[in-house]
Amino acid sequence: MAPQTERIGFLGLGIMGSRMAANLARAGFELAVWTHTPGKAAAWAAEHGAVAHDTPAAVAANSDIAITMVVDGAQVESILLGEHGVVESARAGLLVVDCSTIAPVDTRRIGAALADRGASMLDAPVTGSSPRAEDGTLTIMVGGSQDDFARALPVLEAMGKLIVHVGELGQGEMLKLINNSLGAANAAAVAEALLLAEATGVDLDALVEVTSAGSGASAQLQLKSAAMRSHDYTTFFKTDHMLKDVRLCLEEAQRAGVPFPAAGHARDLLSAAAGRGFGQEDYASIVEPAEGLAGRRLRG
């Protein structure tokens, strides 16, 4: 392995971020870390050989590349532009890589504010959920300049398997929102197909086996059908987070004047699932309101 010369700051050590940062540590990068939860960064740093800091500004002061991996645009803006944020220590040459999923318009606005301080930005949202974050096989879609992408590529390769430069700043986010909305729409279709099959006497094992080999196959069928049938919503990707992404996608669709009714249907089901108390559980809970509409519950 070639020596790692870039110092990395990692901001956000949640379900995804902690695993992504661990892969950077294993790859030999010098890491400075911070997260919202008091004491969590210090504990993580002690385990992984990193240095914890009290503020995002302190992380930025000790980093060449600063990576953010948090929940939403408000958190990204606070970490990068707020009091004691990255912008306070941003210097010429600092590269910010935001792996969160936020609105493209927010990405571009934040990127412009960083550019005013001589820093540059890539948006690099990820897909693959926690198991792929764990083993470093995430898919990462990146928006920003080609030069910044080339600089960040060795860092991204430590966290992901498929890394694609998709265009200018903000386009990584747009592609991620479309991807997640398509996934949510597929998950809604899987839930409804399971309910129809059971209601008409079709064996659900047979449905999954046959459909997986045919034109109805999808990642959602493979990943979520068993969880839906057993009503096991162990969290890989929270319902609230999927709902946020679909809502953002529909906002962009409205701006573009393009209908996306399948995503609208998924939003309504996800919203109902969150309203039933499943917001912090996996989005396989989309089956719950689908069952309510069908007036029946899957028996597995």
Low-pLDDT residue intervals, each spanning 5 or more residues? none
Q: How many domains comprise the coordinates?
A: 2
What's the name of the CATH homologous superfamily of the largest domain?
A: NAD(P)-binding Rossmann-like Domain
The computed structural class is alpha/beta
Characterize the biggest β-sheet: 6 strands, parallel
What percentage of amino acids are in beta strands?
Answer: 5-15%
How far do the termini sit from each other? Answer: 48 Å
CATH topology of the largest domain: Rossmann fold
Arithmetic mean pLDDT? 96
Helix fraction by DSSP (H/I, runs of at least 4): 40-55%
Task: Name the shape in a single word.
Answer: elongated
Characterization of this structure:
The protein has 300 residues and is α/β, with parallel strands linked by helices. It folds into two domains: 7-168, NAD(P)-binding Rossmann-like Domain (Rossmann fold), CATH 3.40.50.720; 174-294, N-(1-d-carboxylethyl)-l-norvaline Dehydrogenase, domain 2, CATH 1.10.1040.10. Helices cover 53% and strands 13% of the residues. The protein is built from 13 helices and nine strands. The protein has a six-stranded parallel beta sheet, with helices on both faces. A three-stranded mixed beta sheet has the order 7-8-9. Helix 8 packs parallel to helix 13. The longest helix is centred in the middle third of the chain and has 29 residues, at 171-199. The protein starts with 6 loop residues before the first strand and ends in a 6-residue tail after the last helix.
